[in-house]
Specification:
This protein is an alpha/beta fold. The chain folds into three domains: about 10-205; about 290-435, Histidine kinase-like ATPase, C-terminal domain (Heat Shock Protein 90, 2-Layer Sandwich); about 465-580, Response regulator (Rossmann fold, 3-Layer(aba) Sandwich), CATH 3.40.50.2300. Helix content is about 60%, strand content about 10%. It has 17 helices and twelve strands. The strands form three sheets. It has a five-stranded mixed beta sheet, covered by helices on one side. Helix 1 (about 10-40) runs parallel beside helix 3 (about 80-100) and helix 1 runs antiparallel to helix 5. About 30% of the residues are buried.
Length: about 600
């Protein structure tokens, strides 16, 4: 059933009905109060039977409407909600008809006090029900017409001019109330439509958020898989280039090899930076706050970057002081490392100075350089991805344009604000704000490993076991290690290496090199444990992986294994092997294999 006024969408009409039933309970209480007032005034002045019948009809209808309201919320209808609105509209029309019969059967138009009382009550009911009944058109209009209509009609037909004027005033009042009812209904309808639009927007935002989170998760999985797929051939390439180095005889060949190595190194840097950006954006990095003295960490970083600064005749100076800060040691060191790398790459003269400024409850660690400086208009742009100043040709030797983007994300993750001050031709100051702590916690750190000269070699005949499920990597490791006069045994899985060690009764390896992720959900930690258990001893080991998560670091630390991140350069692998070959190996047996 449709009426000419029923031009709103169905969901809007349903919401109008719900608003009607939600607010009408108090309205009926007011209606009952009006009935009692009128009954008290006319009691004893009119025929008791007529008055009692009028009161009984009103009370019966009020009870029916109370039951309708209660029943509506019990069943909470959706498909039939509009029909319930029509039912309520019918009861409102009937209520107006019963109330409006009062002037016909009870009121004497010569009774001025009665006229004033009835007109006051009727106009009050029409005005009081305006907002509530206007929810569902034309409920209020019908109630108003049937309530005031008979009174107006009788007033206009009366012989008394005063009563006629009173009827005209009531008629104008009724017209005004009908216009207001339309305005209120339109306003409420627009409000409901706006609410539905907002709800649709919220639902759409939630869907978009879910899709974005799913896309971010898919992107992270894709990049993780892509990272592994890209790192493996790049890792093998670096190892092959390292093996080739010892076989070249001319200067021209050596120069070509160095250029190839630089290109491979640049690609590895780009891959690592992209993975860092991806993991930070995906929220896959967990912060582990500890309290530590920042000075030893800064000194370690200065020692790490001084050789790079020496190539530009630059000196890195560190203010000698001691402050304990609360931060994630690894992530904080990456911020300072990127700032130092950025200062060295983008400056050709002047020293770099690291200062620490103490404030009330935090310190500023500042990396100052004396380079070309940055214009004020560029200060916000330098933290964007792949944005570089004075490098339109995208020269890789000037960096990747990702270092400061990573710094920005790490500072946000740690809640360590990063600021930059710079003046053209005077240099720049990048600072990170870290909270100070008076509580000292002892954080165990590995001693810095010594570096070795390029002329130093491994002990002859070093026996190295290599496990990797990538054929090209196994072959590259075999070629490279043999070029260093090592004895090499390669395998692609834990089961195969143990079977081969048993079958040929190999002696205990000096060093184990294993990829972390292997087939059949196995990993390098399990492989190293299995080999060590086979020989009943602890064997020096290296885990190679492209995953830089804290979990893998902890697993490697649990078996006292070194960890190297792919792609691994041949020279760094050589230094690591020299270091491990000098380390004493703790053993609980003499090295005899378990032949059972």
């Amino acid at each position: 059933m449709k009426f000419p006024f029923n031009n709103q969408p169905e969901n809007v009409r349903i919401e109008q009905v719900r608003s009607l039933y939600k607010q009408s309970g108090f309205l009926i209480f007011g209606l009952i109060a009006a009935i009692v007032i009128i009954a008290v005034h006319f009691w004893g002045r009119v025929d008791p039977l007529i008055l009692k019948s009028w009161v009984a009809a009103n009370f019966t209808l009020a009870g029916l409407r109370f039951w309708m309201i209660k029943r509506f919320w019990q069943i909470n209808p959706q498909k039939t909600a509009i029909k319930w609105g029509y039912f309520f509209m019918a009861t409102s029309m009937l209520s107006g008809l019963i109330m409006g019969s009062l002037p016909i059967f009870i009121l004497d138009l010569s009774d001025i006090m009665g006229i004033l009382l009835v007109s006051t009550v009727f106009t009050g009911m029409v005005a009081g029900s305006l907002v509530t009944l206007s929810c569902f058109m034309p409920t209020h209009s019908l109630f108003s017409i049937f309530t005031l209509g008979p009174f107006i009609y009788l007033s206009l037909l009366d012989n008394n001019p005063v009563i006629n004027e009173f009827g005209i005033i009531l008629f104008i009042y009724l017209l005004v109330m009908l216009v207001f009812s339309f305005i209120v209904n339109r306003s409420m309808t627009e409000s409901i439509l706006l609410r539905f639009e907002n709800l649709d927007l919220i639902r759409d935002l939630r869907r978009q958020k879910i899709l974005a989170e799913q896309a971010s998760s898919d992107k992270s999985r894709f990049l993780a898989a892509t990272s592994h797929d890209l790192r493996q051939p790049l890792h093998a390439l670096d190892l092959y280039l390292g093996a080739l180095k010892n076989r070249l005889t001319t200067t021209e060949q050596t120069e070509l090899l160095e250029k190839s190595s630089h290109s491979s190194h640049a690609l590895g840097e780009l891959l690592n930076a992209l993975m860092d950006i991806s993991r930070l954006d995906a929220g896959n990095i967990k912060v582990k706050l500890t309290t530590f003295d920042v000075q030893p960490l800064l000194r370690q970083l200065v020692d790490e970057f001084q050789p790079l600064a020496n190539e530009k005749n630059m000196l890195i100076e560190l203010q000698e002081t001691s402050f304990y800060i609360e931060s994630d040691r690894v992530l904080f060191s990456r911020i300072i490392r990127n700032l130092l790398s950025n200062a060295i790459k983008h400056n050709d003269y002047g020293n770099i100075v690291i200062t620490l400024e103490e404030h009330t409850d935090y310190i500023h660690i500042c990396v100052n350089d004396q380079g070309k400086g940055i214009s004020e208009t560029e200060l916000d742009n330098i933290f964007s991805e792949f944005y570089q100043l004075d490098n339109p040709e995208r020269d890789r030797t000037k960096g990747l344009g990702l270092g400061l983007a990573i710094v920005k994300r790490l500072s946000r993750l740690l809640s360590h604000p990063v600021k930059v001050k710079s003046q053209l031709k005077l240099g720049s100051c990048f600072s990170v704000q870290a909270p100070m702590s008076s509580v000292i916690s002892h954080v165990s750190t590995r001693a810095q490993q010594p570096t070795f000269s390029a002329q130093e070699k491994l002990p002859a005949g070093l026996f190295v076991v290599c496990v990797d499920d990538e054929l090209s990597v196994r072959d590259a490791l075999r070629v490279l290690l043999r070029s260093w006069d090592c004895e090499v045994l390669v395998s692609d899985s834990e089961q195969q290496i143990i079977e081969e060690l048993k079958a040929y009764n190999y002696p205990q390896p000096d060093i184990i090199i294993s990829d972390y992720r292997l087939r059949e959900n196995k990993n390098g930690v399990q492989v190293i444990k299995a080999i060590c258990q086979y020989y009943h001893t602890t064997i020096a080991s290296i885990i190679m992986t492209g995953d830089t998560t804290t979990e893998i670091r902890q697993q490697a630390k649990s078996i006292n294994s070194e960890i190297m991140f792919k792609p691994v350069e041949a020279d760094k692998l050589l230094q690591k092997l020299i270091f491990l070959s000098r380390e004493p190996v703790q053993s609980n047996m003499s090295g005899t294999a378990d032949t059972e």
